[in-house]
Amino acid sequence: MATRYNKLGISRAGLILLVTAASLLTGCMGRPSKANRPNTIVVGGSQGWRFGFNYTDWAFENGPFYLNDTLVFKYDAPNSTTFPHSVYLLPDFWSFLRCDLRRAKQVGNAIAGGGDGFRFVLNRWQPYFFACGERNGFHCKAGLMKFVVLPFPRCHG
Ligand SMILES: *[C@@H]1O[C@H](CO)[C@@H](O)[C@H](O)[C@H]1NC(C)=O
Ligand SMILES: *[C@@H]1O[C@H](CO)[C@@H](O)[C@H](O)[C@H]1NC(C)=O
Ligand SMILES: *[C@@H]1O[C@H](CO)[C@@H](O)[C@H](O)[C@H]1NC(C)=O
Ligand SMILES: [Cu+2]
Fold first, then answer.
1. Upstream peptide bond of 64 is cis (omega within 30 degrees of 0)
2. What angle do CA 79, 80, 83 make, to 5 degrees?
3. I need a labelling partner for 109 at 20 to 30 A (CA). Which of 49, 79, 89, 150 fits?
4. What is the CATH number of the domain that holds 126?
5. Model pTM?
6. Ranges for the Phytocyanin domain (predicted)?
7. Cα(115) to centroid of ligand 3, in Å?
8. Domain hosting residue 47, numbered range
9. Is the CB of 36 under 6 A from ligand 2?
10. Any ligand 2 atom below 6 A from CB of 154
11. Could you identify the atom of ligand 3 that is nearest to the CA of residue 79?
């Protein structure tokens, strides 16, 4: 099961990078109206940021994302009956594939996702490897709480 998932993860992530590279080579393409102004996107839509929702799938179907778009992570603060979530950035593709949090950087803590949610602006042209950092990678791995974004350059005009 774990092996099968990793294999698919590689091919899907690889596809995303390929598509991104292709569009950079061919210039500004895709959905110009979406690209002209910064968008605010709620990660997972009505599902929010939760255990067991496939965020790789979500990112693929809701992208592409553009520079200066804002991602909003919505998750309730933990209480006696619910587990915490968080938002981490993993340093590279390999740690992303393995949900290896050793060199990860926390950007949103366990209570940051309440209310209007935790907002993160994609303001650099780089791949962002997002993951939930809870339970030492268990949410990332078994809970599918991870996805990659490489924001497109914004189209003007
Ligand atoms: C999550 O979605 C991706 C992309 O659609 C798919 O390749 C993968 O198999 C899914 N993972 C699980 C565990 O269903
Ligand atoms: C993103 O926002 C920053 C700060 O507002 C701005 O300087 C930059 O030009 C914007 N980049 C794009 C690609 O829109
Ligand atoms: C814990 O939080 C969940 C989600 O916000 C909420 O539905 C539930 O009622 C809360 N439980 C307690 C004991 O506060
Ligand atoms: Cu989590």
1. yes
2. 60
3. 150
4. 2.60.40.420
5. 0.82
6. 39-153
7. 14
8. 12-27+38-149
9. no
10. yes
11. 1
Please report which helix (H) or strand (E) contains residue 23, including its range. helix 2-25
- Closest of 1, 10, 15, 3 to residue 60, by C-alpha: 15
Mean pLDDT of 144-156: 91
Q: Which residues surround ligand 4, an ion (CB under 5 A)?
A: 85, 132, 134, 139, 145
Instruction: Specify if 157 maps to a domain.
Output: no
Q: What confidence tens digit (pLDDT) does each residue in 86-101 have?
A: 999 999 999 999 999 9
Per-residue pLDDT reduced to its tens digit, 27-60: 455 555 666 789 999 999 999 999 999 999 999 9
Structurally, the chain folds into a number of domains equal to 1
128-131/87-90 β-pairing: antiparallel
Does residue 21 form part of some domain? yes
If you take atom 2 of ligand 2, which residue's CA is the nearest one?
68
The residue with greater pLDDT, 144 or 8, is 144
Check residue 7 and report its DSSP letter. Answer: H
92 occurs within a structural domain: yes
